[in-house]
Amino acid sequence: MTREEEQAIVRRVQDGDVNAFGDLVAAYEKNVYNLALRMTGSAQDAEDMAQEAFLKAYSSLAGFRGESKFSVWLYRIVSNVCLDFLRKKGKRQTVSLSAEDDDGEDVVLDVPDTAQSPEALLEKKLTRDAVRRGLASLPEDARQILLLREIQGLSYEEIGETLGLEAGTVKSRIFRARKKLCAFLLDDGNIPDSFSSSLSRGG
Amino acid sequence: MNPHEHYRELISRLLDEDTALTGEEQAALRAHLAECAECAAVYEAFAALSDAIGGDLAEPPARLRENVMGEIRREEIRRKNRRSFRWTGLVAVAAALALLIGVAPRLRGRNAGAQLASYAADSTFAKEAADSAPAEKAAAPSSAESVKALEAPAADAGAAGESFVVENSAAAVAAESSSDYAMAVDAEESDEAPAPSMAALLAFLDGRDCAVQLEAEAPDYMIETDEGALALTLAGGKLYYADPSSGALREAGVGEAELLRFLQNQGE
Fold it and tell me: What is the pLDDT of residues B77-92, one digit of tens each?
């Protein structure tokens, strides 16, 4: 969706077209949900946070002037909703990043990638699992900023807008978060050899 | 510090397609990566991290959008069902009395915001502040003035810059008599607009935890919702309320002026 299309939809919602908001939800729900999922570590919590964020966005939409991109504004809401939730829950460090289904059983989040060999797939999965654990080990702020970059694909400036930071600060925090993650993975040991050797060579 | 640290930060920025990275910096980096195995390894590691984090995004459940839109539509229906609600003379006097005595006005329905805004906009009202209350809070005008203010719909709800909340020093007797009026008001209102939803009000208030201790004073605002009244206290320019489910004190993330606009909008 281009920025113009987005602004047009926002205006329609502001003028009273409720259903138009559905278009915005459709456009952003995947990113919002995944941001919440990586922040909270649970599929159920992610669903609740995503819902709360969209409802908040809807009720504050009257005050949205289009000075920033709608996505940036929305992700700020999502971030705050997740951070508030995490602080209330008191979960600071270890958040499990495997999804849980209704019975509380762990569910693997990967979408199978059929274009690769079994070994490559396994390597990929190991790396992803380890990285998710690593994300959970990061302090929330570091996790948040890395996710905004990697999942939402926001530019440094947009992240700066979302979090109220200078672009320079954003860059260095992302760099530090990546380094921390690499350090975790080296320690973790549960990663494929090729990745591990990259990390240790680069250390 | 590792002499290559500078390059590694550049790697991070390169992967993020940092627009501030100049052509020369990129060329220098690529040249370095070609000859430095360690930094090349960092590049691979960071790239693998990106893949792993952003790689497979989960599909949100279908019910997410359904629930969001369902809740929004329900809220819109609730708003549309609120009928026009005129403040009659009786209600106006009741509300004015409530202010005179210093009891928080009970606000409901469509014109709640209009009423509040007109209180604030009325300068007589603000001028009489000094007499019966501490300097920074406004007190009630004479009843004649307030009736006038109430019956005229507020032209500009945004004029709610002045604090007009009364520090509650109400005697029990005063509260009693005003509650008679309040009962009459409620009877008047009973077939009128349903109150705003507690959930919407709480979402709007955007409360956060706070460590403030409030003196046990009666609230400045009592806002009727579909799940009971929410009491808010103004202190130090901020709004505080007790979270209905946990009882914990929350500091509102919005100010008084925005609260008035929100109440005003409820009626539209």
Answer: 887 776 444 444 445 5
Alpha-carbon distance B9 to nearest alpha carbon in chain A (angstroms)? 6
Closest-approach residue (CA) in chain A for B74:
A18
Contact yes or no for A84 and B208 at CB 8 A: yes
Contact B48 A178 (CB under 8 A): no
- 3-class SS of residue B249: strand
pLDDT at A135 over 80: yes
The three-point CA angle B183-B185-B190 to 5° equals 95
What CA–CA distance (Å, rounded) separates A24 from A12? 11
Cα–Cα distance measured from residue A102 to residue A63, given in angstroms and rounded to the nearest whole number:
37
In 3D space, the residue among B234, B232, B224, B220 whose CA is nearest the CA of residue B200 turns out to be: B224
Chain B contact present for A30, CB below 8 A? yes
| Residues B193-248: tens digit of each pLDDT | 556 788 888 989 988 888 777 766 678 888 888 888 888 888 888 888 988 888 88
Q: Are B240 and B251 in contact (CB under 8 A)?
A: yes
Residues A18-37: what's their mean pLDDT? 92
Contacts of A99 in chain B (CB under 8 A): 58
The verdict on a CB contact (< 8 Å) between A151 and B53 is yes
In this structure, the strands spanning B208-209 and B106-107 are: unpaired
Q: Residue A127: what pLDDT?
A: 73
Partners of B208 in the beta sheet?
Answer: B251
Q: Which residues of A touch B72 (CB under 8 A)?
A: 18, 21, 55, 58
Contact criterion met (CB < 8 Å) for B204 and A60: yes
Name the strand (E) or helix (H) holding B68. helix B62-81
Check residue B71 and give its pLDDT: 94
